[in-house]
TrEMBL record:
The chain crosses the membrane at residues 20-39, 51-74, 110-130, 137-158, 186-209, 230-251, 257-281. Keywords: Membrane, Transmembrane, Transmembrane helix. This is DUF6533 domain-containing protein. It holds the Pfam family DUF6533. InterPro entries: DUF6533 (IPR045340). It comes from Grifola frondosa (Maitake). Residues 23-66 form the DUF6533 domain. The keyword Transmembrane helix applies.
């Protein structure tokens, strides 16, 4: 039987749970809104295109985010299998019906986030690889940096156990592995965010270096092109937004670590998917404009 808690503890838990649910719901609403907003462009540029590495990466990032959202919604909707007594960290049984239900939802969501992050890392590396004249060392460098965050995130997903939260609002959640100290958990999350910042900064720096060179060459050849069009075409704006988002996640790591960790990770993953997919769609749009 769970120990009784004070009204103050209950109020704090209710507040934290409510904020987490709002973060999840808003992230789900954002990806759904963006999906239907850009569906027409996807049909025009992706569905009718030949299958290639670019289209496969697009589908990988796009639909891992969409399916992750489906499981996020299932996490927070009360269901028949989640009405049993709350599972305590010292009494976890994966064969319990409530635990099985949450295990499916939470693990599926985590898996989709992992696939999304890997897809985003692959796309960023391929984009820089193309900009730098198919330089394989640039590809290896950016891909290695980009895959650090998915690797750390996968480890975090493994060491945490899904559970049912019935203390306040019934929903699925996770419980930290008791053998792992909280300082170690914070360090892993901090490392994941820091690696994302480093990877985004590297991609942005390599992109800028090539952009300014292309701009200078265009001016020497008296080719009319605006800086804004180059920035849109090379992805500077998108990579810059992702860098700012990851810096925000890094800054908020310590003061908000705990209840909001996975909700913040979901938000960052959703923003990553939106920026990457919009960039790929804009690249196809730009190609059509230049052909005409």
């Amino acid at each position: 039987m769970a120990d009784s808690i004070s009204p103050q503890e209950y109020s704090t838990d209710w507040y934290e749970t409510s904020v987490v649910l709002m973060l999840y719901v808003s992230a789900a609403a954002l990806i759904c809104y963006d999906y239907f907003l850009t569906l027409g462009s996807e049909v025009q540029h992706m569905w009718r295109a030949k299958i290639s590495i670019a289209t496969l990466v697009f589908y990988l990032v796009r639909y891992s985010a969409v399916f992750s959202t489906v499981f996020v919604i299932l996490d927070i909707i009360p269901g028949r299998d989640m009405t049993t007594e709350s599972i305590q960290p010292d009494d976890i049984n994966v064969f319990n019906s409530a635990c099985i239900s949450c295990t499916i939802y939470v693990r599926a969501e985590m898996g989709m986030n992992f696939v999304l992050l890997c897809g985003a890392a692959i796309f960023s590396a391929l984009r820089v690889y193309a900009l730098w004249g198919r330089n394989k060392w640039v590809l290896i460098f950016t891909l290695a940096l980009g895959l650090v965050n998915p690797a750390i995130s996968l480890y975090q997903y493994i060491i945490n156990t899904p559970r049912v939260n019935t203390l306040t609002i019934e929903a699925c959640g996770v419980v930290e592995n008791q053998s792992v100290e909280i300082t170690a958990e914070i360090s892993w999350y901090f490392g994941a965010r820091a690696s994302s910042v480093v990877a985004d900064a590297a991609v942005l720096g390599l992109t800028w270096a090539k952009t300014f060179r292309m701009r200078a060459e265009a001016m020497e050849c008296e080719i009319r092109t605006t800086f804004a069009s180059i920035v849109m075409r090379d992805g500077t704006m998108y990579f810059l937004i992702l860098l700012v988002v990851n810096i925000g996640g890094l800054v908020m790591n310590r003061p908000f670590y705990g209840s909001y960790t996975f909700a913040m990770s979901t938000w960052i993953s959703i923003m990553t998917a939106i920026m990457m997919c919009r960039f790929m769609l804009d690249l196809h749009e730009e190609c059509i404009i230049h052909r005409t």
